[in-house]
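For the sake of transparency, this paper describes our internal protein records without simplification. An entry from our holdings is shown next, in its original layout:
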Amino acid sequence: MPTQVARYGNPRKIAYVLLGAISIVMMRNLSRAQASSAQGETLLPSSITAPGESVDNKSAAIQHGLSDLRVSETVPQSPARAEGATTTSRPLAYTPLSARCKFNIFLSSTHSPYTFVEAGFQATLAQATGQWPHYGGGMQGWGKRLGATLADTESRKFIQTFALSTILHQDPRYFPSHRRTPISRSWYAATRVAITRNDNGEGAFNKSEFLGALFTSSLQNAYYPRHDRNVGETMKRFGGALSSDALGDLLREFTPDIERLFRKHAPKTILRIEEKLPIPPEDKP
C-alpha cells in the first residue's frame, strides 16, 4: 500500500484541496445567485417562454448547465390558496428550445464551476484507485487525468446536448415526473435515458443520448492511453456513460425532495446565515 500511494501521489491531500474548492464555489454561487437569475433571462429570450411559465423556471435549467438540466414544471400557488403548501404539480405548456438556446446550455456549462469541481473529483478518484496507470502518479499524473476527464465532459456536452439534439430535433432537458410513488418516479427517471421529447413535445427514443455516448466513447480513443484503445474498452465506456446518465436523472428527480428535507431539519445557525446572504427570495430553497 505505501508503494501504491507513492506511485500515484497522495490523493488524500488532493481530496482536501478539492473539498475546500467546493466550499468556496458554493459560497460564491450563493452570493451571485441574483446575478445568475438575471443572466438566465438573456440566455432564454422571452419569445420562447411558454404561456404562464415564469422566466425563473426557464433560467433554472440554464443556470446549472448540463450538470442540472432539470426543468421545473410546477406553478406557484397564490398566497390565498397556498397556506401550508408552496407548489402544485400542474404541468406547464411545452415550448421547444431553439438551436441557439441549446448552444447556450452547452456554452454556460463549459465554464460552470460544477464542471471543474466534478472533473477534479473524478480525476482524484481515478488516481486513488489506480485508473489509467500509464498516466503515472503525482501532480503530473493527476493533471493528465484531469485533462482527460474534462475532455470527456466537454466533448459529450457539445456532441450530445447541442449538435445531436439540434440535428435530430430532440430536447436535451430533463422533465420531472408528476407521479407520486417513489418507485414509479424512479422508474420514470431511469428510463429517461431511452425516452426523451422531440421538439414537437412528443415522446421519442433518445437517439441523442445513445449516439452521443457512443461517439464520445469512440472519440476518447484519440487521447486515452494505448492500453484503453480497443473495442472492448470503448463499449465498456459506452455502457458506463448510459449508467451514469441514468443515475444523474435519478438525482435530478429527487434532489428537490432532498433539499426540502434538509431545509426542514437545517440548524437555526445555518438558516440565520442564509438570511444574511444576498439571495433573492424566489431563489431560496
Q: What stands out?
A: The longest strand covers residues 195-197. The beta strands are 75-76, 87-88, 195-197, 203-205. The chain has one domain: 2-283.
